[in-house]
Design a protein that fits this description.
heterodimer; A: alpha+beta; outer membrane lipoprotein receptor (LolB), chain A; 13-stranded antiparallel beta sheet; 5 helices; 13 strands; about 20% helix; B: alpha+beta; 2 domains; 6-stranded mixed beta barrel; two-stranded antiparallel sheet; 16 helices; about 55% helix; elongated
Chain lengths: ~240, ~425
């Protein structure tokens, strides 16, 4: 009986999702994931070939266009700051007292040795603006029902030509994502968990990134505290703030 | 009889002096040229060894599997103790750690903003220790175009072409942006001490060289290194020995299960060098064989002439009643003596000249001016074990065969006609 019911229920869910339109799902996801501004502290646990290390940071962000991150620990990274303004990225290193713009192929480098690249941080366009999407199925993830969305880039200047997302059908939060090259090769995989309701929105507090082309066991990104819609002074998002 | 023949040779200078000189000169040329060819053919191997592969190289197993990518995240750690082990267990090598790395060199303007940037290929090597031979090994002093070699921490060498591209000069500061051993971003300031000209486009495009301690600090590689290069103390690559020493090391220190266990690879097992080593071996053998064959013809001819020149003497000896076989055998024994004496003298002379060229080389700096740092200023011969016996092949065999061939005529001479011939 159970084996008959599950496919029937999945088909019903898929019919209702298709009716709901993939774009509409993504817009609701964006409403959860983005905000006017936010301040959060995070720990990035990088599981390397030899050992794991933890890097903590504090980030100020306005929308998806502006962000300022200050690394708090370990000692070697302490005081390193990163500023993103639109499509430009600068990094300040206190040991050299230099502010260096990260551009070109440097954007493909890993952020602090993690499974994230600077390029991943740079694309601040809305998903619905750069990808065509469709609901292709349903699947339970970590005990929750999800819609599977296949996204194909409609612009050429994207890091990942195809994406596959598993969206929580109830909370409109992605629980899993796979990022593909144009050749179809899987480049990265992310798992989002510890979804909490904060200030009326559902938000995943833990993301595990895995660069599939890199050795190691991936990078855990854990948000230890987050505040939405705070008042952030404008000077934070200036190059002068990097040296302060 | 041998003593009698030997005395005869000593007393009759016409039978000994010229043939011995001819054999000695031929053997000397054979020995010298063999050593020269081996040295010359080995030059490219040595150039690669000095710059990149070493005669042997110690890395982690994981690093060695991805050597082309220079994966410093797979570097060897705890190298102080490993270097001690290598010095103790493998004293036939000089060991030196090196770090190869990629990155970006950023030159600031007056306000500290980026003035210019370019991708760089870097080498960290021991430039500041008094006992280090790295600067000499790479001929860095002679390749300086401007400035000086690093004399204190924090100094760096740039290729001249790269420094012009970045519009920077010795004394100015540049920032290296690279990845640490743990994969994080490495940003480190250096002062340019000098610029180098390599004469090879790939190297001139963006090479930087710094002291290994500075590179360790920049890339967070404390007590670690990407590679440990080993060089034979005599400075020449010996493939058989390198292979056996690498096998000995891997049997002692290697581990199949631990990807970070050290592994030693001989030069011939790194990249395409194996093909070149085999090619060099083959070519030096072919060229040597051709020369030995040519020298054999010359000495054979000398033996023939010697035999024919003694036509009259042989006639008198036969007329006096000496047996043909006895005359023939005595001439062969004499040629063996001449061959041995000539070969010994020739080998000694050939080895002496080869040693001089091995030690001092033939200076080609005039021809190579401004072209290649990695090419040595002098072409050097290389004395190898075959040089001690290779000259005896043409020296004895060809002389004896020549005498044997010319001596066949003895059996064709008729006693009845001997006096007629002698009267003539």
């Amino acid at each position: 009986m159970k084996t008959i019911l599950i496919p029937i229920l999945s088909t019903c869910l898929l019919i209702s999702a298709t009716a709901q339109d993939a774009n509409e799902i993504l817009k609701r996801v964006e409403r959860n994931m983005s905000s006017d501004n936010r301040i959060f502290e995070s720990s990035m646990i990088i599981h390397g070939n030899r050992a794991s290390r933890t890097i903590t940071s504090r980030t100020y962000a306005v929308g998806d266009k502006q962000s300022f991150t200050e690394y708090l620990s370990p000692a070697r990274e302490q005081g390193t700051k990163m500023l993103k303004l639109e499509n430009q990225l600068w990094i300040y290193s206190p040991s050299t007292d230099r502010t260096i713009q990260i551009s070109g192929h440097m954007l493909r480098q890993s952020v602090m040795g993690s499974d994230l690249s600077y390029e991943d941080m740079m694309d601040d366009r809305k998903i619905t603006e750069i990808y065509d999407s469709e609901v292709t199925g349903t699947e339970p993830v970590d005990g929750r029902n999800t819609w599977i969305l296949d996204l194909t880039a409609k612009v050429t200047d994207v890091a990942y030509h195809k994406r596959k997302m598993w969206i929580d059908t109830e909370r409109y939060v992605p629980l899993r994502e796979e990022l593909f090259a144009k050749s179809g090769q899987l480049l990265k995989r992310t798992s989002l968990s510890e979804v909490k309701q904060i200030e009326g929105r559902w938000f995943p507090m833990k993301v595990i990134y895995k660069d599939m082309l890199k050795q190691g066991d991936g990078t855990e990104f854990v948000i230890t505290s987050v505040k939405f819609n705070q008042s952030i002074p404008d000077y934070i998002f200036s190059k002068a703030a990097l040296k302060q | 009889m041998i003593k009698f023949l030997f005395k005869g040779l000593l007393r009759d200078k016409s039978r000994s002096r010229l043939p011995i000189i001819v054999v000695a000169v031929g053997v000397m040329l054979t020995v010298f040229l063999h050593a020269y060819i081996v040295g010359f053919m080995g030059d490219t191997i040595e150039t690669n060894a000095r710059f990149s592969t070493g005669h042997v190289k110690v890395m982690t197993r994981a690093y060695s599997d991805n050597m082309q990518q220079i994966p410093n995240d797979l570097a060897i750690t705890g190298i102080s103790s490993l270097l001690e082990d290598l010095d103790r267990e493998f004293p036939g090598f000089e060991w030196t750690p090196r770090i190869q790395f990629g990155g970006l060199v950023d030159a600031p303007d007056e306000s500290g903003e980026t003035k210019s940037q370019g991708p760089a290929m870097g080498f960290g090597m021991d430039l500041l220790s008094e006992s280090s031979g790295e600067a000499e090994r790479l001929n860095l002093q002679k390749s300086l175009v401007r400035g000086k070699l690093p004399g204190s921490p924090g100094e760096i060498l740039l290729s001249e072409t790269f420094s012009r591209k970045l519009k920077v000069n010795p004394g100015e500061r540049v920032t290296l942006i690279s990845s640490t051993m743990l994969g994080g971003m490495a940003i480190h300031n250096f002062t340019i001490s000098g610029t180098l000209f390599f004469g090879q486009e790939a190297l001139d495009r963006g090479t930087i060289i710094a002291d290994i301690e500075d590179v360790r600090m920049a890339l967070d590689m404390e007590d670690a290194t990407g590679e440990i290069l080993g060089f034979f103390l005599d400075g020449f690559y010996n493939d058989d020995l390198a292979l056996s020493e690498a096998d000995r090391f891997n049997a002692t220190f290697g581990s199949v299960s631990d990807e970070f266990a050290p592994v030693m690879k001989s030069l011939s097992r790194q990249g395409g060098m194996g093909t070149y080593v085999n090619l060099a071996k083959g070519w030096s053998t072919y060229i040597s064989l051709i020369f030995i064959f040519a020298m054999s013809l010359v000495l054979w001819n000398a033996g023939l002439l010697g035999g024919l020149r003694r036509y009259g003497e042989v006639g008198i000896r036969l007329a006096m009643g000496e047996e043909k076989g006895h005359v023939y055998r005595s001439m062969i024994i004499e040629s063996v003596m001449i061959g041995i004496i000539g070969s010994v003298f020739g080998t000694i002379l050939g080895l002496s000249f080869a040693w001089l060229v091995q030690e001092y080389g033939i200076n080609i700096s005039g021809m190579m001016q401004g072209s290649a740092m990695l090419m040595p200023e002098a072409i050097r011969a290389r004395i190898t074990p075959p040089d001690f016996y290779i000259g005896f092949l043409p020296g004895i065999a060809a002389t004896v065969i020549g005498t044997m061939l010319s001596g066949i005529g003895i059996y064709k001479r008729q006693t009845a006609r001997l006096f007629k011939e002698l009267e003539a």
